[in-house]
């Protein structure tokens, strides 16, 4: 223990005071060559530490959010074209009786604005959300074994334009994209010492072997040094820096948690540039200056491969992601300032979207970690102050004095970001309902822990709907289908099976995608594990992923043999409307079965405690009320 204590140094770990005695990590250089061979994207100039670089000849600038970025617009031309063949393949095995869906795609294929435009959104909810969401992505991925058999939905991922994630869902999106569009099966197949080994909690760090040459002491030392390096270079740090670093060891398939991986480097990979995968988006909320509570008027930000920013009127602008950390004033880099690169560390982006899990660090006293580590983290938390324990600090604020100077953000040197689910919009729909993106259908995976026993009850959709009602205010022209209250969700069972919202496009305040709501539900596994359970062995992980696969496919269409057809109809609905194509009878039947028809039943329901639909052996019993009580205090604050 004394040995470990000496290595770590309690003051330096705080990252708040300069640590003049810290030595660079000597093991890094030796591993660099290995890492370059593994991945194509470790392009940060100096690992986790942002670095001053000379600005390119045309200095980076912010742009207004009036349109999509030129990068996205030109990328979309390739991507939309590249979804044509996957959609035809998809409709080869997901069919609509008496309607040639593949032929329809062929017919409209030379007209991008007629083609269906598909998005997938994966909610927050910690590891539960990562695993349940992974089940859906696995079901939608044509690379998954048997996923293109009858009754399955493989190929929907390849047909999609956008894939958004938030909080625990951002860990999933990051795991896929930072690891070269890795499949879920490949992530599951990784072994000891590599990624997705959730049996080793964030408190222990990875096992030795595989990628890692670390023991727990090295792990904490590396995290300490990485954050101290950023602080020493003059950048503010917060708990989220430690959190993001720790997460990276579980999610990024590279040695030492891949400190060189940036989120913006996703845009530089050839496969992405060729439009061979959907565009990833991660969502995070801004904490309004001077406010501690995150309400429905919080500004919602997105990280996409090129940019960081928001369509909300409070910001209404985007900064080039690669140059985050650069001092912008009114959207420009002043002549006497240099540019900064390496701020958009991939783990930091995922950490920013999931700052609720700073709670993991706050709960450090209940772990079996050595007491000196508890003391060190307690000291960090104390120094930051309770008001700031759930933020990621973005300083300098790229939107300083930007365009809308009456915005409270414009006068702030620092931007305080929080978990994307803290405004209760726990499904990252915001980027996907922007009219400029013209999305037709969103497959919305909800792994929220809304009810007493950690099942979703529609709270997230309600929050997005209510926000959309302020069209001239914070919603800034976005629209959303009408959504009933949560009691109705429970009483009508809308959270026990897929439900469509917005089937009738005339029953909306403006153009909005059709929402295919996919709530977490027990098929063969109680997948309602606690948001704050930090560790899962691979057996439980794989069981929850398989359960998620069943949620998406309705148990490979055994719960409803028509389900794949209904998915096809949801995909085609808006497109058929645009091309004045008569709705096939089978689709009409699907819509009458799956669309919420406007009925409400707002009586208070009793506790929602679903049984496993498929029965059979389960690994876990549903969490008892006693266990849940342990998390009750946190749950009040955390809807995720
Ligand atoms: C990160 O990149 C820098 C510059 O390319 C390199 O010197 C360093 O060894 C890299 N570190 C790792 C861990 O790959
Ligand atoms: C992790 O990296 C190794 C080495 O490049 C590669 O063989 C493996 O497929 C990667 N795994 C994932 C899930 O990306
Ligand atoms: C994005 O677009 C800008 C301006 O059109 C261009 O300079 C930049 O290289 C693009 N970024 C990427 C990663 O392609
Ligand atoms: C569209 O994709 C097909 C192959 O999928 C390719 O042959 C064609 O050149 C692409 N067209 C455009 C305009 O990119
Ligand atoms: C795929 O289907 C085959 C044939 O039905 C079956 O033997 C195999 O176990 C399936 N694989 C998976 C991963 O379900
Ligand atoms: C957000 O709403 C709260 C409560 O309604 C209000 O006090 C606050 O001023 C609002 N903030 C902004 C930035 O509109
Ligand atoms: C650039 O000039 C501004 C305004 O004079 C000043 O506040 C800032 O500190 C200067 N930056 C540097 C790096 O010298
Ligand atoms: C852990 O316990 C110690 C001693 O009771 C206390 O001082 C410290 O604040 C606690 N840390 C946290 C993060 O709650
Ligand atoms: C729905 O979830 C919210 C929390 O998100 C909770 O306050 C409410 O009581 C729940 N209602 C029902 C009917 O489950
Ligand atoms: C709508 O948004 C505006 C600006 O954000 C705010 O001032 C107003 O109070 C909001 N209205 C409602 C009903 O929430
Ligand atoms: C849409 O339908 C719902 C439920 O019937 C209704 O309450 C709402 O007012 C309608 N909205 C519009 C814009 O037509
Ligand atoms: C459609 C709409 O209302 N757009 C507005 C969004 O916010 C910006 C900045 O306040 C306005 O300029 C747009 O008109």
Automatic annotation (TrEMBL):
Q: From the UniProt record, list the reaction(s) this protein catalyses.
A: a 1-acyl-sn-glycero-3-phosphocholine + H2O = sn-glycerol 3-phosphocholine + a fatty acid + H(+)
Q: Which domain of life is it from?
A: Eukaryota
- EC number(s): the record gives 3.1.1.5
* Signal peptide range: 1-22
List all membrane-crossing ranges: 613-639
Domain PLA2c: where? 54-601
Q: Which GO terms fall under molecular function for this chain's record? A: phosphatidylcholine lysophospholipase activity
Broadest EC class assigned to this enzyme:
hydrolase
The cross-references to Pfam families, in alphabetical order and at most eight, read:
PLA2_B
Q: Which UniProt keywords apply?
A: Glycoprotein, Hydrolase, Lipid degradation, Lipid metabolism, Membrane, Signal, Transmembrane, Transmembrane helix
Q: Give the record's family classification.
A: Belongs to the lysophospholipase family.
Query: Matching PANTHER family, A to Z?
Result: CYTOSOLIC PHOSPHOLIPASE A2, LYSOPHOSPHOLIPASE
Q: What does this protein do?
A: Catalyzes the release of fatty acids from lysophospholipids.
Query: This chain belongs to which protein, by name?
Result: Lysophospholipase
Q: What organism does this protein naturally occur in?
A: Paecilomyces lecythidis
